[in-house]
Amino acid sequence: MTKLSKHYYSYAFILPLGIIYFIFFLLPTLMSFFFSLTRWDLADWEFIGLENYVTFFSESSLTIGFRNTLIYAVVTCVLKVVLGLLLAVALTSNLRSKGYLRSVVFFPTLLSTIAVGIAFSTLMHPTQGLINQGLSYLNIVGPDWLGDTSIALLSVAFVDVWKGVGMATVIYIAGIMSIPQDYSEALQIDGGTAFDKFKHITIPLTAPAMNSVIILSFIGGLRSFDLVWAMTKGGPGFSTDLIASIIYKQYQGGFYGLATAGNVILFIGVSLLAFPLFMLLSKREVDL
Amino acid sequence: MRAKSKQVLTAATSLILVAGLVAGCGNNANSGNNANAGTNAEQTNGGGTETNAAAGGNAPAEGASAERYEETVTLKMLIDNQTSTEGLKAVTDEIEKRFNIKTEYELRPGGGEGDNLVKTRLVSGEMTDLNFYNAGSLFKSLQPEKYFVDLTSEPFMQNVMESFLPTVSVGDKVYAAPSGSSQAGAWLYNKKVYAELGLSVPKTWDELMANNEKIKAAGKTAVIGSYKDSWTSQLILLADYYNVQAEAPTFADDFTNNKAKFETTPAAVRGFEKLASVKDYMNKDYLATTYDQALKMLVDGTGVHYPMLTFALSNIFATYPDKIDDIGVFAQPGDSADKNGLTVWMPAAISIYKESKNIEAAKKWMSFFVTPEAMALMATKAKPEGPYVIKGAKLPDDAYGGVKDMMPYFDNNTNAPALEFLSPLKGPNLPQITVEAGAGMKSPADSAKAYDKDVEKQAKQLGIAGW
């Protein structure tokens, strides 16, 4: 009691924000667990137990959705980690137009995802798009980037990487800049090459940055929605549906309870994948 | 002690701040209500004449000045941003002139997002006085009996054709009036190319396929596919409903009551088969083509057939006014020539919100809206895409040629409403399922099965009896 009254001055300051956080974040989160167990039309609800979960798991497009989400998350995550690191190394070297190039790489991050999606779906049009018209000058018949079900998802993933790699690069650059110069001086004295520097100094010492990039881009990939929606709306058919777009379609259909159940599943799924990954990654961090 | 009072003071001021915030929001809401109450008061002044207006629904021109409100009443109408409001405005301008009732249009998105917006506004009690929304299964999913004014016994509803009423009724109560002309789900075709190639309008599916073959041989796209806008892929399936009904007359009821399935009804599977069979006649980039690009192909004559709703005629007229007469319409043929008929889409519904402060004015508004005179006014700005569903309203002489092509199906009574106007069920994944069927990713039988599953999910989620 004494402890609480001692601190209640500070609690009073937390209170307004706490109320807002509770009303707009915690309460809806808790309520969603409840509404996922109901048939809900926004006005009335009827308790139906786990039926929504059963329905959601028997959704025909869901298997595609789970598979697509994993592929999408892994592909975008790996490409961002690798390309981001290479770009960061290049952009911290003694390039002349370093400042300009850094902003070029970062620029796509500033654009609206929807605008990027619309622009790229125009560029990727099989007959009138800039990409395939360019290829046709080289006498290559480009594929239907977004219409061919076997590559549509990868096309979207490519755009995601184009847009997101700038953020990864910036995180890496910060990591590389914080490596003390002493290490590379020692390497120079020992006569190491640039590749040795990359392998023995840059990679181990940017591990914390790399972990952030992996976690951020992997979680981002798992719950990705806006880009797919702008480019393909999950189509053709269900071939680029991600879990998030399946959930959104349930919501559009007016199945609010079912959509909420889908979100609870997504929440649990992301947590199950992200927490072990985080644990694993933080173990191998090296102290500077 | 002093420190403590300071603490209390701080706590109190922060509370006041929060309270101020909340009160601020509250005030806004209140002032909104006051404004409404104001119009309400004005409206009751003129309310006494309302019954006159309703009784004189057929001929409101007489004694219009007596029915005029002293002060302007403003009605708000929520409408999707894809519907052209030109024609509606011609009518509402006249309503303003006659009754001093002003109509404000509030735009919302169409499609699924629009559905959710409308539902949210209804549940949160913030619907506009008038709601412009699809008739049929979508309207029924709004639970009209809960949110809209019962119009069953309003005299002006006598003007509305019987065929429209079931699409906006729950039980035997009617909850909305029609917003204009009906339209058809049919095949638009380029008459010029038809003449060049010496083709005639097909009466059976086989004849249509033979025409497709000839068009393909002539180096043109026989059937335009625009699956980038996935809703357009549904047309061949949905426009086949006249043929389904001809083979299985009780399908709509059985389907609603969980007694008939697409998969086990051969006539229904036939729609998916027709959809799959035109794949080889479609443009190569049909998965990347949009609705707008498809219209351009049809007008240019690079594409010859386009299965579509006839509202496309208005879009064509707006963009290519000199080409509108090149476009004709025929019903999607069935398997025998003597069972050839048109599948009809009902116009959107306009309903009055139950909690509106201006119900009397809205009824007066509607009593003029559903007259032949109003439809004629509408036609001056927006040509009809099919016959009107108001008794006595005639097509204007300058109607689109395509619409005139549709008239024999109405004169001979060989038409049927689309399934979504007969049943509250329409699976939300149908556009994706028809893309799969049309692109050959799934067999027609599997697509029918997938759709049955989609419908079952919807029925269970909506809690429809018997599922």
UniProtKB/TrEMBL annotation, chain A:
Membrane-topology annotation of the record: Multi-pass membrane protein
GO cellular component, one term: plasma membrane
Ranges of residues in domain ABC transmembrane type-1: 66-277
One Pfam family per UniProt: BPD_transp_1
Gene Ontology terms: biological process: transmembrane transport
Broad class of the protein's primary localization: membrane
Keyword Iron assigned: no
Membrane-crossing segments per the record: 12-35, 70-92, 104-124, 161-180, 201-222, 255-281
Subcellular location per the Swiss-Prot or TrEMBL entry: Cell membrane
Family annotation (PROSITE patterns): ABC_TM1
Keyword Membrane: yes
Superkingdom, natural source: Bacteria
Alphabetic keyword roster: Cell membrane, Membrane, Transmembrane, Transmembrane helix, Transport
Family (UniProt): Belongs to the binding-protein-dependent transport system permease family.
Name assigned to this protein: Raffinose/stachyose/melibiose transport system permease protein
Upper lineage: Bacteria, Bacillati, Bacillota, Bacilli, Bacillales
From TrEMBL, chain B:
Membrane-spanning parts: none
Highest taxon listed in the record's lineage: Bacteria
Positions of region (Disordered): 36-67
Signal peptide: 1-23
Pfam family, one: SBP_bac_1
Entry keyword annotation includes Transport: yes
UniProt keywords, alphabetically: Signal, Transport
Alphabetized PROSITE patterns for the sequence: PROKAR_LIPOPROTEIN (PS51257)
Feature: compositional bias, Low complexity: 36-64
InterPro entries: Bact_solute-bd_prot1, SBP
Similarity comment: Belongs to the bacterial solute-binding protein 1 family.
Protein name, UniProt field: Raffinose/stachyose/melibiose transport system substrate-binding protein
